[in-house]
Amino acid sequence: MEKEVDVSKILLDNGMRLKIKERCDSFAKQLSLKILKNDKTFPLNDERLQNIIDKNIIEPIKVKQYKNTEYYEVIDGRHRYIYNLLNENKKINVIVIDS
After folding, report:
1. CATH number assigned to the domain comprising residue 45
2. Please, what sign has the CA dihedral across residues 21, 86, 54, 4?
């Protein structure tokens, strides 16, 4: 199911958190973003992010609901999420995958 959600409903993994701090920290601080606990993800790739920026890739990210909460965990689209924040968007299109 595709829908639009607030970016604050997407839980950040450590790689996303670090890239946000580096690239768009001032905007992100306005949003009350939440961190995913105990994640073991890899850092985000600068070249991949730049490619998304250069090509203006705005397709929806894939997420799954986090436990029985109102939050989502990114399955595919961590770089596109960051790109969305770089453009100071407070909403993002997602495809919710059943977990």
Report:
1. 3.90.1530
2. positive
pLDDT by residue (tens digit) across 57-68?
899 999 999 999
The gap from C-alpha 70 to its chain's centroid, in whole angstroms, comes to 15
Cα–chain center distance at 51: 16
Q: What is the pLDDT of residues 69-83, one digit of tens each?
A: 999 999 999 999 999
Task: State how far the Cα of 92 lies from the Cα of 99, in Å rounded to an integer.
Answer: 20
Provide the edge-to-edge strand list for the sheet that holds 2-6: 2-6, 91-96, 61-65, 72-76, 10-11
Q: Measure CA 3 to chain center.
A: 15
83-29-78 Cα angle (round to 5): 30
Provide the number of structural domains found in the chain: 1
* Domain housing 82: 2-96
Residue 25, both tokens:
């920290």
